[in-house]
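Render this sequence as a predicted structure.
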Amino acid sequence: MTSKVDEALSYEQARDELIEVVRRLEAGGTSLEESLALWERGEELARVCRRWLEGARARLDAALAEEEEGEGEGDGEAVRGGE
């Protein structure tokens, strides 16, 4: 479960921390316990990033749908006006 602190992270903050977690895991030299803690933190951060990206996708889809609705109405009038 994601904590309230994680929910307050911006996408950029979560992404940057996730990059650091991955860097530390790839570098090695950590104990098994520390590696597991880093992995768990990375999973939490990935969930935060995924939620931000899903929200951004929903906003883009809504904006595009609005734009298409507006264009559809305007196009019909332009065609009729040109007849």
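Summary. Residues 32-82 form the longest helix (51 residues). DSSP finds three helices and no strands in the chain.
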